[in-house]
Amino acid sequence: MPVVTFQQIESNVLPNIDPNELSTDQKYLLEMCQAITTRQCSTDLGNSKLGPMCHSRWLTTANRILRLYIWEENPDKHLITLLNYTYIVKAYALIWFEIKPSCTCVNRHLFHIIHHSRYMSTELKRIVDPVIQRNSYFAHP
To answer: What is d(CA 62, CA 85) in angstroms, rounded to the nearest whole number?
Structure first.
């Protein structure tokens, strides 16, 4: 499918990370997030071959969702919420690339997950917050 004129998603700046240290899937996520936040996506990036889908890896799912976003010219708000494009760009990718170089500061990463999810509506926070609370025991030293 062709890359269409998609809406730009405002996001914090991604951490400075060397793309040569990333796997193919990780590099694709970085490039897609940069393309969506700058609203400049090349046809090559939009049509590049993705690795195999792995349901246990959220990374491959996130890559496919972002690809769908650049192909869909006018996604309605329900599709945006369901596929959570904004969450991937505003929270998931930021945390992914923050954890990549150093996964030792679990408490700080948990705080950033909470911080980056605050933009969500109250309805979505009611869904997300219990999941964060349930999984926060991993952050206990």
So the answer is: 8
Q: How many residues does the chain have?
A: 141
Q: Is residue 84 part of a domain?
A: yes
Q: What is the CA radius of gyration of the chain?
A: 15
Task: Give domain status of residue 33, yes or no.
Answer: yes
pTM score? 0.77
Q: Does any domain span residue 12?
A: no
Q: Are 6 and 72 in contact (CB under 8 A)?
A: yes
Can you give the residue range of the structural domain that contains 34? Answer: 19-101
Let me know: does 109 contact 99? Beta carbons within 8 Å.
Answer: yes
Give tens-digit pLDDT for 79-92: 777 666 778 888 88
Residue 80 domain-assigned (yes or no): yes
Task: Provide the number of structural domains found in the chain.
Answer: 1
Q: To 5 degrees, how large is the angle CA 60–CA 1–CA 45? A: 55
pLDDT 10s digits, 100-121: 776 677 778 888 888 888 888 8
